[in-house]
Fold:
Amino acid sequence: MTDVTTPPRKVRGISLFSGGLDSMLAVCVLRDQGIEMDGLVFKSPFFSPEGAIKAAKHLGITLHILDFTETILGLVRNPPHGFGGAMNPCIDCHANMIAAAGAFMREHGYDFVSTGEVLNQRPMSQNRRSLDTVAKSSGLEGYLIRPLSAQLLDPSIPEQDGRVDRSRLCAIQGRNRQPQMELVQRFGIKEFPSPAGGCLLTEKGFCRKLRDLFDHTDGIPEVRDVELMKYPRQFRLPDGGRIIVGRNRDDNKRLKALAAKENRTILHTVNIPGPTALVIGEIPESDLQRAAAIISNYGDKGALTEIIVKVITPTETKEVTVQPLPRETYEPWML
Structure:
């Protein structure tokens, strides 16, 4: 009689995968000991999965994409652990991502969740206390592995029971990238991005616009209005109106298309070449006149002192004649 034994089940991990070098190396370190690794990336108005998609193809791993928009908007409105240097709720963001990854892990039968975090690489979000807070807040204590720094951290349950060989994990810490470069050579990684934040919530110029939107919105803003914060030239006018002013032909074309699609108010000059302005939300007549005067000053007015501006609202189209507003007048209204 032949003795037939069931082969051991293959260990499987799901790794938070931004597409940055550390997330790529975390996958490689675990895959190097025979663990089947997939990636998980989140998308929102503040960060894109495009880099992760490219990096996943380079490594040949399956990548799952989850929408994180509702969660991150809630965290920006009310971050339990506060913000970083701008409007980035990094600790709460990581904890919620890892919690979502934990739910995905349980639903799809993975053994653990991993990340590319490196101890003390980022002073606020990757110190020992922050890493422990994220693990605890996520509800994934014991099943969260940071393979690049694992030997400096408490062992996870898969390390303790032998599913993951702790001796083959790393002990990297700090901001020196030399250990990562050595792993790049070891694993033959040919393409990887330069270190960068990649999240708009860390960019102070963008966050000035976003903070103004939150300050003038009850509850959570509409996603479509959050997306509009990516246009650089924006104004909060004295009586509460807000406008976006195009910087070039492409901006103007996109703003006009958006106004037509979403039934928004838009302004553009008639008797001179000039920018288009899109109104966000409601705007009083006083600010509508100011908006017309602002775009008149940006236009190619030459010696003209009176400019005709067409105003297209959801209910009417009209023309107003204004004098260009001097830059020193409207500059304090710029966001």
User: Anything to note?
Assistant: The first strand starts at residue 12 and ends at 16. DSSP finds twelve helices and eleven strands in the chain. The CA atoms of residues 16 and 115 lie 5 Å apart. The two ends are 80 Å apart (CA to CA).
